Amino acid sequence: MSASKKLVELFYDVVSPYSWIGFEILCRYRNVWNIDVRLRPGFLGGVMQGAENKPPGFVPRKFEYMKKDLHRLGCYFNIPLAQPQNPAEVMFVKGTLQAMRFVTATNILQPELTEVLSRELWMRIWSRDEDITEPASFQAVATAIGLSKDQAIKLIEFSKSQEVKDSLKSTTQEALDNGAFGFPFIIAHVNSKKEVFFGSDRMELLAHCLGEKWLGPLTSNSKSKI
Amino acid sequence: MSASKKLVELFYDVVSPYSWIGFEILCRYRNVWNIDVRLRPGFLGGVMQGAENKPPGFVPRKFEYMKKDLHRLGCYFNIPLAQPQNPAEVMFVKGTLQAMRFVTATNILQPELTEVLSRELWMRIWSRDEDITEPASFQAVATAIGLSKDQAIKLIEFSKSQEVKDSLKSTTQEALDNGAFGFPFIIAHVNSKKEVFFGSDRMELLAHCLGEKWLGPLTSNSKSKI
């Protein structure tokens, strides 16, 4: 029945905790809705620049609220989100350009690993407050997802190539061309039309648009206190 | 059983279409959840200034997306939202200071009318693209909600008083004091704690926080195409 499955593309960057929420929700609902989820690793910095948008955290009260909001969403959706000690450094000083090139390289050479790799990167910065910019960090990530040292070296080398740089740029541009001004950004292909959704909080509308049903977090842990 | 009802305060301004969505959802769920909804008409301009925040529509792509998003939400929640011809003029040139003073005056003298009055004002600007700044418009609104000409004149006069101006300021300040950076802004009083929510898209989390269940739009019309 694969032919009748609707394609849902998720543009994301591991710098973005809301992207993580959108990613986990779609990974869960892929088994419930009649959809194919296509992971599209992009570069959020490029989207923000292209859209002349600013991160919401630049407004101090919004930043304070986001901490609470992310904590609640993490509990509700059973995603082990935890604020890094210094989110501004993680997001704006260190950034994720190398990390997203690493994801892109993996997505080209071993696309079956894109999901676990992305999750491991999110676990590092948005759960355990670990680095994702140093070569040793990429090695650690590769090991964590079961790659051999040789495979890891090959992917890390490939992630520095022009092909990978161009591929990441092109995915980022594709998001912009479809109206993105931030991540997560979803393109659902419904009746030969593209329906775009911004954020991780339009899943009930996405379900409706796909002719499916929103069933909440799909996890028993969402009963925990938020 | 009224004593055990949890208080949910909704801070809103009729300038904000997302506030309208939050308002209608809470007005519906008030009959389903064990809550008391307290309507808190405020002035969004004052909140944005106090929070040093900018309306999302200032980023052109976000503005384009919001039009689509509001259309979808309107259909899904069965709220007759329609973009005015010139939203920037409605929101930023004409504004809603007088209108929100009118709502505040009503909320002081005839609080049982606050809900229908607010809805009628939203219907005017966010559904039928009608003025809500001229004296004739306030008269028309008053008539639409069943007030006599005398009652209308009394409310319109009272809305110009210092008492009303101060009351609107104080409600706006209360939202700011609780961390608001935009509307709708919700304060749920749960176990002697204030839980705050921004936006109309955290209702499932609000339900969870209240120990209630999110049941979707509670309207049969949400089957329509979005």
TrEMBL record, chains A, B:
EC top class, as a word: transferase
Gene Ontology terms: cellular component: mitochondrion; peroxisome
EC number: 2.5.1.18
UniProt-listed Pfam families: DSBA
Domain DSBA-like thioredoxin: 8-209
Keywords: Transferase
Single annotated GO MF: glutathione transferase activity
Active site: 16
PANTHER family referenced in this protein's UniProt entry, alphabetically: GLUTATHIONE S-TRANSFERASE KAPPA, GLUTATHIONE S-TRANSFERASE KAPPA 1
Name of the protein this chain belongs to: Glutathione S-transferase kappa
Higher taxonomy: Eukaryota, Metazoa, Chordata, Craniata, Vertebrata
Gene behind this protein: gstk1
